[in-house]
Amino acid sequence: MKRAIVAGATSHGLGITRLLLSKGYQVQLVDQQEAVLASARADLADLLRKTGGQRVGELRTSGAPSEVDSPDLAVETGTGTVAEKRAALAALEAVVPPSALLITSSPLVSVSSVAVGAQEPARVIGLNIPGVSEETQVAEVVAGQKSDEAVIDRMFKIVKSWGKTPVRVADSPGLIVDRILCSYYLEAQRVLADGIGGVDEIDGIMRTYGRFKLGPFEAMDSVGLDLDLVLTTSIWERLGRPRRLQPHAAQRKLVERGFTGRGSGRGFYLHDSDGVLPAWIVDRRSFELSPLHSDAMVTFAARAGAINAAGTEQYIFSRILAAVINEAGWVFEESVASPRDIDFAMVLGADFPQGPLAWSDDIGHRTIRGFLHGAAGVVGDDRYQPAPLFERAT
Question: Measured between alpha carbons, how far is residue 274 from residues 10, 33, 201, 264, 281 in Å?
Fold first, then answer.
């Protein structure tokens, strides 16, 4: 039986543990709080009941990592400070043989910064599975500054053995999926705050014309507004606070009031026994585009798939999709990942109907640039500055 140690009974740690159990691993789940471990055991028991024991490994829990007979993986999933994560990884390294992979799993913290606490930082690799579920088809394999190529190759093989597609990602804030999703969520909130469309209207437009599985507000309520706000804030700060990724006041206001989404019963929607209803009142306001901006919007929307949309629908659709595509352009320009891996990650890890960079080729880079320049002229700041990929289009 394959063996692993998972340090940290966080929601992320539980997700990793469930995944490993489903792949037949014997897992030692480590946390210093017995109450947390007891809750984890009860939660993970659901997996055993649902699968009837087929292909499910064995779960053990402990307050501190102990020696496991030839573990394949040692995974640190803490949500604390960098110093705490370094200490957790060092504690794992002390009880596993040199053959075990040392994995840190969090989109919030740099792999290289955590690896500093290891005796052999070349053994340390990052792994992020968006949503951390059995259904997620992609895994972001994160190479730290000192990660050995053999370790990266081995992580790729393990991910493939789980039936997932690995994509290689540079050690960067938010990696691919979470960073690009930020733009999907944030631009939708800006459209809402501008009074151009309501919560359900915006979601419907993105589902209908963009073929997204979930609209941005549906997705945020599902993920949890509080968790997403922490992630968005971390990405924004670590990237130097670019205006385009600044957390929005709408989300912050809801979180401060305890309205964190589906789990709390209310977020951008009200979730109760009567169904799901929009819970944000829109202050409707008119808008006007310059002729050049309007022409760019019509071309953008038509080439992106919103051929039969009305004018306001085209504008909402174009603003949100352009923000998503532009962020993918920045991810590419910063050498976070290859275009192929960016598109794979968003399709397989975020249920996007199409990779954003493949979408940009369909629309045309000059058209994207023209629409973004028009949007920038309206707001008067640099949030719509085109990524160099689009700025240099001829």
Answer: 32, 38, 20, 15, 19
C-beta of residue 118 within 8 angstroms of C-beta of residue 103? no
Strands 138-143 and 73-76: unpaired
Place of tokens 């174009």: 318
What is the full DSSP assignment across 1-55?
--EEEEE--SHHHHHHHHHHHHTT-EEEEE-S-HHHHHHHHHHHHHHHHHHTTTT
Give the residue among 16, 60, 19 at the shortest CA–CA distance from 37.
Answer: 60
pLDDT of residue 132: 65
Residue 297: per-residue pLDDT: 93
> Residues 74-115: pLDDT tens digits?
999 988 889 989 998 998 999 888 889 999 988 788 999 999
Tokens of 393: 């289009």
| pTM of the model as a whole | 0.93
The residue with tokens 């573990």 is 71
Tell me what the mean pLDDT of segment 112-136 comes to: 88
Residue 60 CB-density burial (10 A; 0-12 exposed, 13-18 middle, 19+ buried): middle
The candidate with the shortest Cα–Cα distance to 191, out of 264, 254, 280, is 280
Provide the 3-class DSSP secondary structure of residue 329. Answer: helix
Rounded mean pLDDT, 256-268: 95
Measured at the CA of 264, the angle between CA 260 and CA 265, to 5 degrees, comes to: 110
Q: Which of 52-66, 93-107, 197-211 comes out lowest in average pLDDT?
A: 52-66
Confidence (pLDDT) at 54: 53
CA 318 to mean position of chain CA atoms: 22
Q: Is 1 exposed, middle or buried (0-12, 13-18, 19+ CB in 10 A)?
A: exposed
Cα distance between residue 108 and residue 111, in whole Å: 9
Give percent helix, percent strand, percent coil of the chain, each to the nearest 5: 50, 10, 35
Q: Is-contact 214 131, C-beta < 8 A?
A: no
Q: How far is CA 186 from CA 41, 49, 146, 181, 280, in A?
A: 36, 39, 34, 9, 16
Q: What is the dihedral of CA 294, 296, 300, 302, to 10 degrees?
A: 60
Distance CA 118, CA 87 (A): 9
Q: Is the pLDDT assigned to residue 31 strictly greater than 90?
A: no
